[in-house]
Amino acid sequence: MKMQALLSAVWGVGLLLVLCGARMGSARHNSHAPRTLYAFGDSFVDTGNLQRSPELGATTRQWYFPYGVSNDQATTDEEKATGRFSDYLVQSDFIAKMMGLPLSPPPWQNTHGQTCGPTGMNFAFSTSGVFGISFWITLREQVDFFKTMIKSRIISKNHVTHSVALLASSGNDYKQFRFITNTWQVTDLAWNITTEIATNVERLQNLGVKKILVNNLHLLGCTPSFCRKHNYKACDEWANEAASKHNYFLEHKLGNKKGVLIVDLSSAFDHIIGHGNQDLAQGKQFKHIRKPCCESADHKGYCGQQDKNSNPLYSLCEDPRQYFFWDDAHPTHAGWEAVMAQLQNPIKEFLGVA
């Protein structure tokens, strides 16, 4: 669906949900700690905005077995897979729990025409990037959706004032430019990407959001998709250099900005999957720190892939809790739990939650 059609759908339900938006705002008006979350970005925080398709594919696999396999709240494979790129929960769920919410708020695609839940909304799309080179929805367009819903009073301004925004940009833009090896080109790319992130942070603030969490970039080169060629024993230095430049510029642009906390995924991941960190407590938790639990047979394939006879074209580990990575790019539920345990104190302090 094109962006114009999506925006039209939002405008079309605006009048219907005006009163609901007003109720959301008044319900949290006297709350000291924010209890509403808006998530933007990509698959690190997406909870199902890429809708389920009747056909299994690279961009729909999150709705099929073995995704969600560790979800003990459901009984069938179809119920377990909830559109999350993990064996259960993802980062936005852990942030929500820190805020006292049960899970990340519902995905925008499933709610914008039916309800305006009091816990907020998740605008993140797994295929998203900062720039619209080959992405379905960009970060800027997600913020556009949010802005439209505020203008149409589906979301009240008072509600936004007492909310938190989570912004995740997890490297999709850099993966599109793997052919770049020149240091100056990598530097320019990182500068442009972080500039666009900072611009959208400012847009969110102008819309009334008082507290914004912004992920920095984890060790891209130590993720399975980059280090598979090294049999998961070594990391890709180009990708890690890109992440390092990204984080340097992000800190320069947002590090001292009022109302913004940079969530240090880089350090948290490094303590588990970085060079020589297997002896640290965080690394010892996992038997496998770079090899994924769900591994495609072909390096160009994907977790959950099947042949025309429905035979699996992937291998699946017995215990995801022993693996930091679930698939070629995303942590397991246990992986996210270990990462967010390291970060919860500064996040809670920033948000003012107990």
Give structural attributes:
14 helices; Rossmann fold; 8% strand; disordered N terminus; 7 strands; 354 residues; alpha/beta; single chain
Could you walk me through the main structural features you see in this protein, from its secondary elements to its overall organization?
By secondary structure, the chain is of the alpha/beta class. It has one domain (3-23, 32-351): Rossmann fold (3-Layer(aba) Sandwich), CATH 3.40.50. The chain is 38% helix and 8% strand. The protein is built from 14 helices and 7 strands. It has helices at residues 3-12, 18-27, 77-80, 91-98, 108-111, 139-151, 157-161, 172-175, 183-206, 224-227, 237-254, 265-273, 281-284, 333-351, and strands spanning 36-41, 120-122, 163-168, 211-215, 260-263, 294-296, 314-316. The strands form 2 sheets. It has a 5-stranded parallel sheet with strand order 2-1-3-4-5, sandwiched between helices. Strands 6-7 form a two-stranded antiparallel sheet. Helix 6 (139-151) packs parallel to helix 9 (183-206). The longest helix has 24 residues, at 183-206. Mean pLDDT is 87; it is low at 1-30.
Annotation, overall tally of beta strands = 7
The fraction of residues assigned to DSSP E strands is: 5-15%
Count of discrete alpha- or pi-helical segments spanning 4 or more residues? 14
Biggest sheet character: 5 strands, parallel
At the third CATH level, what is the topology name? Rossmann fold
Helix content: 25-40%
How confident overall, as mean pLDDT?
87
Q: What would CATH call the homologous superfamily? A: SGNH hydrolase
Number of domains: 1
Spatial ordering of strands, largest sheet: 2-1-3-4-5
